[in-house]
Amino acid sequence: MTVTSAAKPTAERPRLWPMSVEAYHVLGEAGLIPKHTELLYGQVFQKMSKSPIHSGLVLRLLRWFQAAVPPGWHVRPEQPLTCADSEPEPDLAVVQGREEEFWQAHPRTAALVVEVCVNTHEHDRSKLRAYAAAGVNEVWFVLGPEQQLEVHRRLRDGSYAERIRRGPGDVLLSEAVPTIRVDLDALFGK
């Protein structure tokens, strides 16, 4: 078991300007925030374009997760989670409640969040602190080039107490949403 902590987003991602979650919402609704951004730790960051492998992995997981989530839960693809000073848009988030419950405000937490990492490993890992602060139970990083899945779970004192990696031949069962099971060979097309 290892304790993980996340650094702030790296300088390789262009920062636009600092702001609060409330200001981000107001300016976004007024059309004054550029498209393809997310708020992390009070800074607005441009999001990277998605490679075909990134899109393929997200779509495959989305289909599997939608078939696996229990009644009263839903899967949110690339939708915001509102945290104290951040509003990340994970590739997938499994949230308890019906979609209609979030028409007035974005969810403030999720049971499981998935980030697909093809060339954004550092940036995606920088979101761990925001997810931990929001009480997200489990975070998965799908490491495309490595064909591995990195799991952070067991929230303790603002960080994740457990970090594990799984690779080819492994099957991963989510602790946060036990109906979700992923065969890594099938995920990576083997």
Structure overview:
This protein has 190 residues and is of the alpha+beta class. It has a single domain (15-187), classed as Alpha-Beta Complex (tt1808, chain A). The protein is 22% helix and 30% strand. It has 5 helices and 11 strands, in the order βαββαβββααβββββα. The protein has helices at 21-29, 52-68, 121-125, 128-133, 184-187, and strands at 15-18, 37-40, 43-46, 73-77, 92-96, 112-117, 138-143, 148-156, 159-166, 171-173, 181-183.
Name the CATH architecture: Alpha-Beta Complex
| Biggest β-sheet description | 6 strands, mixed
Rg estimate, integer Å: 16 Å
Strand tally, please?
Answer: 11
Strand fraction equals: 25-35%
Order of helices and strands: EHEEHEEEHHEEEEEH
Q: Remind me, CATH topology?
A: tt1808, chain A
Using the coordinates above, name the CATH class: Alpha Beta
Low-confidence stretches: 1-11
Mean pLDDT comes to 88
Terminal Cα separation, in Å?
A: 29 Å
Q: Quick one: CATH superfamily?
A: tt1808, chain A
Number of helices: 5
Class by alpha and beta content: alpha+beta
**Helix share bin:** 10-25%
What's the domain count? Answer: 1
- Which term fits the overall shape? globular
Strand order of the largest sheet: 4-5-6-7-8-9
What layout of secondary structure does this protein have?
Blueprint: E1 15-18, H1 21-29, E2 37-40, E3 43-46, H2 52-68, E4 73-77, E5 92-96, E6 112-117, H3 121-125, H4 128-133, E7 138-143, E8 148-156, E9 159-166, E10 171-173, E11 181-183, H5 184-187
Parallel strand pairs: 6-7
Antiparallel strand pairs: 1-3, 2-3, 4-5, 5-6, 7-8, 8-9, 10-11
Output the keywords:
190 residues; tt1808, chain A; 6-stranded mixed sheet; 3-stranded antiparallel sheet; 11 strands; 22% helix; globular; disordered N terminus
